[in-house]
Amino acid sequence: MTDPVRPVPPPADAPPPASLRGSPRSGATPRMETVRVTAPDLARRAAMERTRNRLVLTAAGFTVLFLAVAVKLAMATVIVPDRPRPETSPLPPPGTPLAAPRAVAAIGAHMRATIEDRNGEILAISLPTAALFADPRQLMDPADAAAKLKQVLPQLDEATAIERLSSDKSFAYLARRITPEQEIAINALGIPGIYFEPTEERRYPQGSVAAQVLGATDVDGRGVAGVEAGFNARLRDDPDPLRLSIDVRVQAVMRDELSASMKEFKAVGACGIVMDVDSGEVLAMVSLPDYDVNDFGRAPANARFNRCATGLYEPGSTFKLQSAAMGLDSGRVHVWNWFDASHDLYFGGFHISDFEGKHRWLALPEVLAYSSNLGAAHIALATGTALQRAWLRKLGMFARVPIQLPEAAFPLVQSKARWQILSTMTVGFGQGISISPLHLVRGTAMLANGGRRIVPTMAALPPGAVPALGPRLMKRSTSDTVRKLMRLVVTSGFGEPADIPGFYVGGKTGTSEIVSHGVYRKHANVSQFMSVFPMNAPRYAVYFMLDDPKGNASTGFFSTAGAVAAPGAGRVIARIGPMLGIFPDLQDKAAIDASLAIPMQPPAPPGAEVRLVPPMVEPRPPKPPAPKTPAHKPGAAGASVDAVWQHPAPPPVPAVPQIVRFRYHAAAPAPGGRVVAAR
User: Fold this and answer.
1) Rounded to 5 degrees, what are φ and ψ at 481?
2) H or E element at residue 185
3) CA 246 to CA 299: how far, in whole Å?
4) What does residue 584 show for φ and ψ, rounded to 5 degrees?
5) Which of 124, 360, 364, 395 is most exposed by smallest CB count within 10 Å?
């Protein structure tokens, strides 16, 4: 057993013992220590070793991260430095391209679609803008913030801005439709609590072109009128441009001619329509006065009023085409029939007569050419009330025109109970019913296109698309005969001023009295000319109307449609024809004239009934005493009306405004003292 006190001698191969520091080697004293390592010590040492290894790995990771940050900083500040924004000049020099701010860029993919005409001309486009709003709770000094914003937004009402910024609300609008430059400048002010919301501004680069057709949008970008409202969902959801059927060239020509005629004859308004008779596409729709669409909110109500789709007028003698067509199509009337226009009609205390009447029996073509109210009334009576109502309903005269314009109005039509014999006669020559010009154009187009139903549209057909043929509403022979009658009116009737060589225009004049507060106004007419060209192969319907024109020396102080409206329609046709690919055809004139010819007095087949005397008309009473010619304004001699009251006193106002109340007009006495009704 080893003595724990006595030291154990070192082994023979042990190194020499260490010497004390500072002592000579010879003075070294052998020394040995005994160290004991237990199992817990070994475990502790192993744990410490693992911890050290982990710290080394962590330090290496942080070293890599710091190196990455250092490289990124070097890239951003030395290698590829970002250009700092100059704080001293918030607005860049003019002409410097700017990147869209975030508020503006956010709306780019969701902007309202562009509107174009049929040839790609831009009519409406949305520009990206931003709305400025604030969270008043985050502002320290509302007055200082408002003053700074006023420097960038001169139109800002500083007092109102301070009031809004001082409220307890979390949201307050300050300005709408600010430009990208203004947004950048406001950002540079560094005002806390000021934010931007992406919006858009609708602009109309063509100004007043197709003003009532385009309509407008509200501050939230929703359509409120015109095609902006009619196609609101399409423009909002589909970013592709919307191509309208409007042709800005045709639109400009129509506006130019309407404006010139309106000025020449001092009319209070005017309107015009050009429509494709096969597809129903509206190539032009002009209503005067008009306005700049960019200033819709400040436009007067009279300018925003769309006379083409919303205005309701008595169609006057243009409706005689419908009377002739329904009579021919029913088989109750033929072109060789004659109608009594030698005597005026009296019914229920009312008296119907002709302007510049022939005072004899008239054949059907003569009724149209000379625009005889008496002849048209007889045609309507021969056809019958039931067929008349059914015909007009079939041609869409009793319903709203199905077009993408919310303003399109419903016609004013008498109820079936009130539609008696007098209404049948007066509607036969265009009184006692009020329709929009769009109704009239559509109805006439269907008479000329072979009798096919069309649906008017403001949307252009896809390029190369062929219009779908609608159902046939009348016999083809009826349409062919009506086309010849329309051509006859222009070559030998009151529509002669609209005849343009080589275009083979057909049409019908119409002069109707203006109804105001349920009564007819003296010396106030709507003069309209409804035409189609070329009649040998109908392509386009052209409507030209002046509201309350005043005759002048060039028209003999007449304001009838043949004097003031037909010439303007002819000028429109001459100008737009080549634009639409229709050129004067004089080489085949003889053949075309022969194909459209119809005699004024067609011969009747052997044994056919020639003279039609409809029943239900009161016998002509004894001739009343000559009426006293009413006083009239200077220059009003020959003013146009549709019928004349021949008794000394005017008739009482009827109970229902739609029932026609014939009245007398100031007119130049004819030989023998008879007052002549102008038409």
Assistant:
1) -70, -40
2) helix 180-189
3) 22
4) -55, 130
5) 360
Residue type, 235: L
Collapsing DSSP to helix, strand or coil, 273 comes out as strand
Is there a contact between 505 and 535 (Cβ–Cβ < 8 Å)? yes
Q: Would you say 291 and 304 are in contact if contact means Cβ atoms under 8 Å apart?
A: yes
For tokens 């319903």, the residue is: 399
Strand partners, 520: 515
3-state secondary structure of 232: helix
Q: For 92-161, what is the HEC assignment?
A: CCCCCCCCCCHHHHCCHHHCCCCEECCCCCEEEEEEEEEEEEECHHHCCCHHHHHHHHHHHCCCCCHHHH
Termini Cα distance of the chain: 156
pTM above 0.85, yes or no: no
CA atoms of 567 and 509, how far apart (whole Å): 11
What are the CA-CA distances from residue 499 to residues 23, 151, 549 (Å)? 143, 63, 21
Query: Bridge partners of 531?
Result: 507, 542
Alpha helices in 497-607 (DSSP H): 561-564, 566-579, 589-596
- Give yes or no for a cis peptide into 84 (omega within 30° of 0): no
Which whole-number Å values give the CA distances from 176 to 110, 147, 173, 219, in the listed order?
18, 18, 8, 8
DSSP, residue by residue, 43-100 = HHHHHHHHHHHHHHHHHHHHHHHHHHHHHHHHIIIIISPPPPPPTT-SSPPTT---PP
Length of the chain counted residue by residue: 679
Do residues 300 and 584 lie in contact, with contact meaning Cβ atoms separated by under 8 Å? no
- 3-class secondary structure, 489: helix
Helix axes 476-492, 437-448, angle to 10 degrees: 110
Of 560, 548, 563, give the one whose Cα is nearest residue 639.
560
Mention every residue, 6+ apart, whose C-beta is less than 8 A from residue 306.
212, 213, 226, 285, 287, 405, 407
In angstroms, the CA 353 to CA 350 distance is 10
pLDDT along the chain (679 residues), means of 10: 55 60 61 73 85 90 90 80 52 49 50 95 92 89 90 90 88 86 89 88 94 93 94 94 97 98 96 97 97 93 96 95 96 94 85 88 95 94 95 96 96 94 94 95 96 96 87 96 97 95 96 83 90 97 97 92 96 97 95 96 87 56 46 32 33 32 30 31
Q: Containing H/E element for 217?
A: strand 216-217
Distance separating alpha carbons of residues 393 and 245, to the nearest angstrom: 26
3-state secondary structure of 275: strand
Residue numbers annotated as active site = 317
Widest pairwise Cα distance in the chain:
176
Q: Is the preceding omega at residue 4 within 30 degrees of 0, hence cis?
A: no
**Burial class for 312, CB neighbours closer than 10 Å (0-12, 13-18, 19+):** middle
